[in-house]
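Collaborator request, handled under Task 6.
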Amino acid sequence: MAITGGMLGAAHTTATADDFVPELWSDGIYRYFERGTVFKNLIEDYSALVKSSGDIVNIPQIDLVASADKTANTLIEYDATNTTVTQLAIDKHKYNAMLFEDILQIQSSADLVSKYTQMFGEALARALDADIWDALDAINENVGLAADDALTDGEFQGALASLGENDVPYMDGGVSFVVNPVLMADILDPAAGVSRNFWRADACGDGSLLTEGGKKGYMGKLYGIDVYMSNTIQSGGTSTRTSGAIFHKSAAVCAVQQSVRVQAEYSVDALGTKVVADTIYGCQLVDSANNKKGYRFKNKD
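Structure tokens returned to the collaborator:
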């Protein structure tokens, strides 16, 4: 309003000088939940072999050789069975990058750079998990489910029979079962067939079990097999989409040559700070028709 009492003109108000009133930033609220990696902790990790150098890791697979009988006055025979070599290529270089102009950083009351770099790390972790799942999604042994993202007693028992016949030791603690959220909900359903054999990790009242050994996504046990849920495995879709997989830790391998690295530099041309986060790694399936190490559940045909 105009000022009276001998003064000429009018005073600036929030209506006439709104551009000079600062709009402050609150602390960042993430539009995602930190998910981290699920699959990386469930397979063989060869990162230590490639930390210094190298772009290929040769992984020999030695087949079991049958024993022979020794008879008197005869020479033994030497076996010449060849090993199969699988190569793990360190061929994935993923990054996230953003430019923070000075005006944004000066006018912000929150540390935007640290907020975004945290998001970068989460995005790169999800990329690694997705690539590991892409490898596991090619496990040779599989079955089509009678209904999408739903598991019956018979279907799961068929998986156990297949694992046993292929000498996969599913009761020794080295085997994991990872499913998508919809199939997990089916397993948790009290009316579902497999639910009566599912032990929920939260049922004992010890919340720490839900992160068993720091592994994310842990839900419980089914016939002694650790069960995990991962959003990396999509729900629904065609018969080519996998709802979940049981696999031994040796069914796939990964190697992280360079962990998540964050670099920043000031750009005079842009009058801002450039921030880049990147990581280098490789993933490889080690499951073959002659050396089966897992079992996939596909959506119905």
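The cover message to the collaborator said: "The first helix runs from residue 102 to 107. The chain has one domain: 40-63+82-298. Please let us know whether this matches your experimental observations."
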